[in-house]
Amino acid sequence: MKSFECFGLDTANQCLLRSGAPVDLAPKPFAVLRYLVENPGRLITHDELLDAVWPETYVQPQVLRTYMLELRKVLGDDPGQPRFIQTLPKRGYRFVAQVTEKAQTEPGSANRRHSEPVSAAPIIGRGAELARLEQHFQLARRGERQVVFVSGEAGIGKTSVVDAFCRELTGSTPASVGRGQCLQGIGRTEEYYPVLEALRSLCAGEDGEAACRVLERLAPAWVHNGRGLDPDSNPRPVTADRTLGDLCSALDALAEEKPLILLFEDLHWADASTIQLISALARQRSKTRLLVLATCTPQHGSGEELWKQLKNDLMLRRLCAEILLEPFKRAAVQELVARELGQADLPSDMADFVFQRSEGNPLFVIAVVEHLIALGVLVSRCIEGVARWEQCAPFPEMEAGVPDPLVRMIELEIERLSEEEQRLLEAGSLMSVAFPAWAVAAALDKDPLETEEACDALARRLHFVVRAGEDELPGGLRSAFYVFGHGLYREVLYQRQAAARRHRRHMRVADRLGELFAGQEANVARERSMHYEAAGDLERAARVLEAGTREDETAEVY
Fold first, then answer.
1. What DSSP string runs through 434-493?
2. Which of 370, 474, 490, 494 has the fewest C-beta atoms under 10 angstroms from its C-beta?
């Protein structure tokens, strides 16, 4: 382990430690810091750092500025008087702190405080989250009603977490669970759809008869809809104002017999009536053994704004809690891959490859592993009567592509956006994981100011696009730039564009670079050349790169 001042770099677990405690740091900033720490005292140029962290991938240099800001914030470093990272203008960076080498602790020991509960959990890497859910349930058991949102990006494992939590309860603590699924589009045609589904599951459960009797007594307008047992029955509508109060009373009564958990999945698709019910349940002052649990994805959904308004309002009044699921650390990715393959010792560098490719998203981890198997990179062989997975191609030399299941999932998210929003993201993908607003405007031949405002609106709404800062352009102009949360989103957006359209957009970006940096073309010769090459104009790409090289050589002479 490499140490500097109170920090340690645990390369086995891919985490930064401060005084022995783990510090949250995303995979890419960690990779940047690791390269600097492993090369202390010398100049690391922008190109060297980009090539080390993003091999065989073109990334615009301004992404380094974003990660340096994040690293300085984490390290408490002052760029004016640096203790750790010194910026050498127009050249690169130097790690200036003294680095010492310490014996590497046992893998996972740095995170032992967090990993111990995981070993007892039925899922990987979510021990802390399950412990928090257990705490909220215990509060509910004591009569303190609870509303908890389990949120995170698509594929992060929200359903796995709530499933594991409910399994543990059924095995240890008596509790009733009513589960409802919110569906895209249903909320606009059928009010209370997930609520009715939750009531049906309660009525069909172990305590179903008792639940039905309580509903018939306190909320008769709901019980016929809730039971759903008689297809010939004529369900009564549940639109009258008084029935909302009736249902709240009935749910409180149900929770008197044993703790009650109402679980709503994908609340971002919920109808306004369901959101209103959760709000009413949260604001009740009476004691009850009720836990309302909802999974949510911060994406563009039909009810997303309603969910956000509800959550923000309840958070302000301290009437709810949110458990945000973060991507897996490297150790959890390795454990998940080992479980999927059924063997503890993985092929060399496989965990690192999958971790970088998936960026810690559990769904992406499994999809990448399956993709490697489908490509024949991982092959199962019988050795001395035991089946084992072996690596048959070096990962760095392999063109991984995007696994088909992830392409379909990402495409589905993209297609929920308007055509104009899709074009913005496609244009952004031309620049790699980081893209400036001016380049998006150039690619689409749009007004820069309007384009930046549109990109800001997208970044506020989408989980996979983040505003990362501002670029200063020649002449004092400034332009915001953004980062794709996952490189796989960028790849899908890039490949979905027709070749002719993509070529035209690359050409516009290259031309605009030349206009912005007129008189300073050597500074952007590499970027312009790559855009011309991507546009299919190899002659101009070579000419621009050669001219930039000559200008650099002339500048060195003088």
1. EEEHHHHHHHHT--HHHHHHHHHHHHHH-TTEEEEEEEEPGGG-EEEEEEES-HHHHHHH
2. 474
Instruction: CATH number of the domain at 12, please.
Output: 1.10.10.10
Give the domain-ending residue among 299, 324, 349: 324
Q: Are residues 238 and 144 in the same domain?
A: yes
Q: Which domain holds residue 276?
A: 127-324
pLDDT digits (tens, 9 = 90+) for 25-64: 777 788 889 999 998 888 898 888 888 887 655 566 667 8
| Bridging pattern class, strands 7-10 and 2-4 | antiparallel
What digits encode the pLDDT tens for the residues 120-135?
335 899 999 999 999 9
Asked if residue 91 and residue 167 are part of one domain, the reply reads no
The tens digit of pLDDT for each residue in 469-481 reads 888 888 788 899 9
Host H or E run for residue 4? strand 2-4
Q: Per residue in 522-540, pLDDT tens?
A: 888 888 999 999 999 999 9
Nearest of 17, 1, 26 to residue 355 by alpha carbon: 26
Q: Please tell me whether residues 20 and 169 are part of one structural domain.
A: no
Strand partners, 260: 176, 290
Report if residue 121 sits inside a domain: no
Q: Between these two residues, 353 and 26, which has the higher pLDDT value?
A: 353
DSSP classification of residue 106: P
CB 77 within 8 A of CB 83: yes
Cβ atoms of residues 254 and 202 within 8 Å: yes
Domain closes at, from 397, 418, 453:
397
Q: Would the pLDDT of 550 be above 70?
A: no
Integer Cα distance of 167 and 171 in angstroms: 6
* 120 assigned to some structural domain: no
The mean predicted confidence, pLDDT, of the chain is 83
Residue 219 and residue 184 share a domain: yes
Q: Judge whether residue 331 has pLDDT over 80.
A: yes
Same domain for 348 and 275: no
Number of structural domains found in the chain: 4
Distance, CA of 306 to CA of 268 (rounded, Å): 8
Whether the predicted pLDDT of 148 surpasses 90: yes
b/e for 358-372, b at 16 or more Cβ within 10 A? Answer: bbbbbbbbbbbbbbb
Q: Looking at the domain assignment, is residue 339 inside a domain? A: yes
DSSP letter at 308? H
Same domain, 293 and 160: yes
Q: Residue 552: how many CB atoms within 10 A of its CB?
A: 12
Percent residues over pLDDT 90 in the chain: 36
Residues found in the chain: 558
Place of tokens 């680095």: 99
Q: How many CB atoms lie within 10 A of CB 374?
A: 11
267 and 138 in one domain? yes
Residues contacting 391, CB < 8 A, separation 6+:
347, 348, 350, 377, 378
